[in-house]
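**Fold in tokens:**
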Amino acid sequence: MTYYHPEDEAELPFAGPLKWVAAIAALFALSLIVDFFMPVVCTDARVEEKIFIKESNRFGGDTYDLRIITDKMKFRAKPDLFAAIEDKTVINVCHTPIYRSVKQVSGLNTKSNLPFSFEAVLPLFRGYGAFPISLLVVACFCLFFKQDDTIAYGSGIITIVLLISMLLII
């Protein structure tokens, strides 16, 4: 019978830097979650330009990118909001305080004098709201799981994959 020494086990490559990446990812996810739940900041802005970009897909479809540029910020818009806003219109833009993600746009239509209010496109929180929460959980698991280094190492790699996916969505 042989006796197993834990000192004989090889150390996993990049285990130290992986912990640093997990710590940064956990702080980033926590800041996204805090930013989303903080009260919004509303400012008035004048629409300077509307940009409509149509790109053809390689599969035959079209992709539309609608952007509104104001004197204070740029943001993506849904088609209804894009049609309702005219140039030089003063709009009320409500955004998050840290990352300035636009949550709501409201104003008065210059042609019909009717008020409009639209929720802006938030890709990180609308369809992908689980990304910041799952990134935080997996990164904390990588940082604080001490029983098995292999499991912590694997969750560190998952942390990197989630972080890259989130940054590509934003």
